[in-house]
Amino acid sequence: MESTFRMNAPALDLTAGHRQRLRERFLKGGLAAVADYEMLELVLFAAKPRGDVKPLAKALIKRFGSFAGAVKASPSALMEVEGVGEAVVAALRTVEAAAELMLRQGMDDKPIIQSWTALLDYCRLTMAEKKIEEFRVLFLNRGNALIADEVQQRGTVDHTPVYPREIIKRALEHGATAIILVHNHPSGNSSPSKDDIEMTKLVMEAAKPFNIRVHDHVIVASKGHYSFKSHGLI
C-alpha cells in the first residue's frame, strides 16, 4: 500500500526553487539583474506553471535573436519552436500588447508635438519589425491630441496601396483637423522612395480643401526612422 501511494503521488516540481530565486532577484534588482533569457523565463512562468522553462527561453532567443524578437514574432513562427503552444503564444503577445498600450496611453490627451519621442517609440514598436508594409494614420484634434490611430492598408514586403480619398474621409468622420502618416519599410532602410514622396503630396492635396493639415509622414524601419517634416518635404 505504501509503495502504491508513492507511485501515484504527484511529482515534486524541482524547478520551484529556481523560479522563486529568479523572481526575487528580478524584484530586487529589476531588469539590470536578469539576462534576456531570464526575463523571458519570467514571462513563460505564467504560460507553463511547472517545469523548467529555461531551455525554451534560450531556444526562443536563439531562434528570434533577442527578447524583443521573440515577443514580436508571429504566432505561426513561434509555434514552429518545440515546446511552444497557445499558452506561450498568448503570454508573449500579452507582453507586446502591454508595451503598445503603455506607449499609446503616454500620448493620449497630450499634444503629439509634446510627446514626439513617445510617438516614435510607439511607431517603432508597432511597425518597425513587421515583414510586410503597413500604412497607418494618426488622427488629431485641434489641440493636436490623438483622436484615433488606424491601420489603413497592408501590402506586400515592398508596397502598400494608399488611397488619399479614404484617408480624408476617415479624418472627416473623426472630426480631425490634422493627421500624421506613418508606414514601415520591411527592408530596414527608412529612406523614402519616389512613390512615398508622390503619395504624400497626393494626400496633402486631398486634405487641403478641407483644411486638414498633414503634420508629418514618418517612415519607420529596423535601422531608424525618417521624418518628412524634419527633412523639409512637408
Can you walk me through this structure?
The longest helix has 20 residues, at 86-105. The protein has two domains: 15-101, no CATH class; 130-227, 3-Layer(aba) Sandwich (Cytidine Deaminase, domain 2). It has helices at 2-8, 16-29, 36-47, 54-64, 67-72, 75-78, 86-105, 116-127, 164-174, 194-207; strands at residues 134-140, 146-154, 178-184, 213-221, 224-227. The protein is elongated, with a radius of gyration of 23 Å. The protein is an alpha+beta fold. A five-stranded mixed β-sheet has the order 2-1-3-4-5, sandwiched between helices.
Question: What is this structure, in a nutshell?
Answer:
The chain has 234 residues and is of the alpha+beta class.
- Report how far the terminal alpha carbons are from each other: 83 Å
CATH topology (level 3) name of the largest domain: Cytidine Deaminase, domain 2
**How would you sum up the major sheet?**
5 strands, mixed
Total domain modules: 2
What order do the strands of the largest sheet run in, or round the barrel if closed?
Answer: 2-1-3-4-5
The proportion of residues in beta strands is 15-25%
| Oligomeric organization of the protein chains | single chain
Q: CATH superfamily of the largest domain, please?
A: Cytidine Deaminase, domain 2
The level of helicity is: 40-55%
- Can you tell me the CATH architecture of the largest domain? 3-Layer(aba) Sandwich
What is the average of the pLDDT values?
84
Structural class: alpha+beta
Series of secondary-structure elements, N-terminal to C-terminal: HHHHHHHHEEHEHEE
Number of E strands: 5
Per DSSP, the total helix count is: 10
Shape: elongated
CATH top-level class of the largest domain: Alpha Beta
